[in-house]
Amino acid sequence: MKDGIVIIPTYNEIENIEIIIRAVFSLPKKFHVLIVDDNSPDGTSNKVIELQQEFSDGLFLETRKEKSGLGTAYVHGFKWALQHDYEYIFEMDADFSHNPADLEKLYNDCNTGKAGMAIGSRYVTGVNVVNWPLNRVLMSYFASMYVRFITGMKIHDATAGFICYRREVLETIDLDKIKFTGYAFQIEMKYRTFINKFKITEVPIIFTDRTKGESKMSNAIIKEAIFGVIMLRVRKIFNRL
Ligand SMILES: Nc1nc2c(ncn2[C@@H]2O[C@H](COP(=O)(O)OP(=O)(O)O)[C@@H](O)[C@H]2O)c(=O)[nH]1
Ligand SMILES: [Mg+2]
Question: Which of 101, 182, 201, 205 reaches 20 to 30 Å from 107, CA-CA?
Answer without folding.
Answer: 182
